[in-house]
Each structure stands twice: as structure tokens, then as C-alpha cells.
Amino acid sequence: ESSRDAVLYVNGVRRVLPDGLAHLTLLEYLRDIGLTGTKLGCGEGGCGACTVMVSHYNEVLKKCVHYAVNACLAPLYSVEGMHIITVEGVGSRKSGLHPVQESLARSHGSQCGFCTPGFIMSMYALLRSSELPPTEEQIEECLAGNLCRCTGYRPIIDAFQVFAKTDDAFYTNTSSSDLQSGEFLCPSTGKPCSCKSKGLNGAETCKKSTANEHNYEPVSYSEVDGSTYTDKELIFPPELLLR
Ligand code: FES
Ligand code: FES
Predict the structure, then answer these.
(1) 118: Cβ below 6 Å to ligand 1?
(2) Domains of the chain: total
(3) Among 155, 184, 200, 213, which has the minimal tally of Cβ within 10 Å of its Cβ?
């Protein structure tokens, strides 16, 4: 390996790109290395099934920026020096679902499932790139490039609206660091609660929550950014800051 090698990271794993792959799209590369959660739908930027998150260090802004990208349109070498997160890097049944995945599943926002990784990645990229909780309009807008043939969209939109900034009962600014010892955020209400449920991955749900008008159990934004999930979120690889 030399210092001139093309390097990228995929889901936190460093990968050196050999020469001779200029004909590959990022989507073909990801699927070739076994990450088949990212789907090929149209192959021309129209359906969003191939959406991944691309992160890179922006020299002008002096910070990492995150974008949802159609992997079917991105030439592989165009993401050299960047960090790619695919749906496998967000969460799984084995490692624990991310709140975005959990919420979509609970609201029945996935039927055949083909579009699901793309929707997850669009929403995940929006949350990672927003310093404040997004608005409902921003959430709808971020899903505009994702098509679904099965659900009619309403369950998907509903699933993700729990991450929106809103005054309703499902949103809280509370983070785990604000909680008294022994207290924790209830996965049903997103508020401090003594229901003793074990969080999003626990089998139990909050029996104390009476405000659940929807057919899913909302999760709070604070669980995505700053609370229970934080230690699992993939960080930007330090090596790429130096390139
Ligand atoms: Fe349809 Fe990429 S496969 S946008
Ligand atoms: Fe089938 Fe969306 S769940 S295409």
C-alpha cells in the first residue's frame, strides 16, 4: 500500500481501491463486496432504492458533512476519501435496530421491503446532517427522491414524523445526561419515565403510556442523537480528516 492509494471507508471499515475499477458505480462496488442491503431499482437516479450516506470533511466549513446519495449514479472513484454508510451500518436485527428502522417497522412502513433501505438512508442522512430536529416539511422533502410501490407512503411519512420538531407529546429535548440517576427515556413517550422498559431494543413496551394514538410506538429524536443510541453511531474516520 502506498500513500497514493485510493482509500474509502465503508461502514467504518477501511478499504483500499485498486486501479482498474473506473467502470464501477458505488452501488456496484457495494453489492460486489457483499453489502446487498443497498438495492438496484432503476439505475438512473429515479427511485432512491440505492440511497447511501456519504460523509466527507468540508475544508471550508471545517466540519464533516453528510449527504444522501444515489449510489447508482456515483462513480466509485468519486467517493475516494469519503465515508460511506449503508443500511448495514445503521443497524440490524442482530446489532440492534436504529430508531429510524424501528419506527418504520412499527408503523408498518415496509411491505415488500425493496425501497426500505433507501428510505432509511434518506432519513438517517437528514438526522445526521441536521443540528436541530428537522421540521415535518424537511422530512417530507428529504423523502421526495424515494419511491415505494407498496405502502402508499402514509405509513412511511408517519413513521418518520416522530423525528420532527414538534410540540406534541412525542417530542422532547431531554437527553440522557439530563436525567436523574435511575431515570431513563421511555421508548413510548420519549420522556423521562419510571416504566422500567428497557429502551428500544427491549421486549417490553411502556404500560404507562396512554397517549399512543398511532399504531406504532414513537421514539424520541433524543434517542437518535444524544441518548441511547449514541455509542453505536458510526463516527467519521479520523484518517480521512488528514487526507
Ligand atoms: Fe433507482 Fe439508484 S437505483 S435511484
Ligand atoms: Fe415495497 Fe416500498 S415496501 S416498494
Answers:
(1) no
(2) 2
(3) 213
